[in-house]
Amino acid sequence: MIRIDNLTIRFGHGQRPVVRDVNLAIDSGTAFGLVGESGCGKSTVLRALSGLNANYDGRIALNGEALDRQRGRPFYRRVQMVFQDPYGSLHPRKTIRSQLQEPLRNQGLDRNAIDVNTVLRSVGLDPGLSYRFPHQLSGGQRQRVAIARALMLNPDVLLLDEPTSALDVSVQAEILNLLQDLRKERGLTYLLVSHDLAVVSHMCSRVAIMEAGEIVEEVDIEALRRGAVEHPYSQRLLRASRMYGRG
């Protein structure tokens, strides 16, 4: 479903690349994790794939078709993104219902083309909440709204940028389980960016490990759980994750 070849990204002409020669292949209907410490470039890869950053070298393809750097409406019918901060990604002065209808308006569709109530129920929310504003919801409810908005156009792909890191620990598992259920029900393909190996281990079947703008290793999730990684950085990241869990 997703193929990235030799992706290189610079912030400014002549600047040193922040992402260098990244190559990924993600099968349809699977969840793929991209992990690494903060600042390693993983969210930058996600932004290039999403069309938020068109200044890159290399090739990005969706279901075998190379993507233009400037994405049009058809792309956003198929690919949607869920951001890290569920409050910052929602408009504070618009009701939940209005924000869920926004993707339909952007596509030139009738605002009732997709039933908002049905989508809200699919993410575990009471449709009555649709007339509230973001500040009237909890963090977990806001992230469920963000997921619902991403589902409004029935996409094939969800790009997940640290989707639980801004939430309370008690809510994180609920959101991860919801995402798992939605992927299986809808046949979605996920690219999940995270610094948390436990989250990736729960969600994904394969993972690429990124250091300083480069992918240093790609393994299946069972190998990651066994600690069967070869690159020194992968080994350090795994040790750090296990030590953090004990703390």
Can you describe this structure?
By secondary structure, the chain is α/β, with parallel strands linked by helices. It has a single domain, classed as 3-Layer(aba) Sandwich (Rossmann fold), CATH 3.40.50. It has 9 helices and 10 strands. The chain has helices at 42-50, 73-78, 96-106, 116-122, 139-151, 169-186, 197-203, 221-226, 232-246, and strands at residues 2-9, 19-26, 31-35, 57-62, 65-66, 79-82, 157-161, 189-194, 206-211, 214-220. The strands form 2 sheets. Strands 6-7-8-3-9-10 form a 6-stranded mixed beta sheet, with helices on both faces. It has a 4-stranded antiparallel beta sheet with strand order 2-1-4-5, with helices on one face. A hairpin with a 2-residue loop joins strand 9 and strand 10. The model has no long low-confidence stretch (mean pLDDT 91).
Quick take:
By secondary structure, the chain is α/β, with parallel strands linked by helices. It has helices at residues 42-50, 73-78, 96-106, 116-122, 139-151, 169-186, 197-203, 221-226, 232-246; strands spanning 2-9, 19-26, 31-35, 57-62, 65-66, 79-82, 157-161, 189-194, 206-211, 214-220.
Radius of gyration: 18 Å
CATH homologous superfamily name? P-loop containing nucleotide triphosphate hydrolases
Shape: globular
Main sheet specs: 6 strands, mixed
Spans of 5+ residues with little confidence (pLDDT < 50)?
A: none
Question: What distinguishing features does this structure have?
Answer:
Rossmann fold, 247 residues, 4-stranded antiparallel β-sheet, alpha/beta, cell membrane
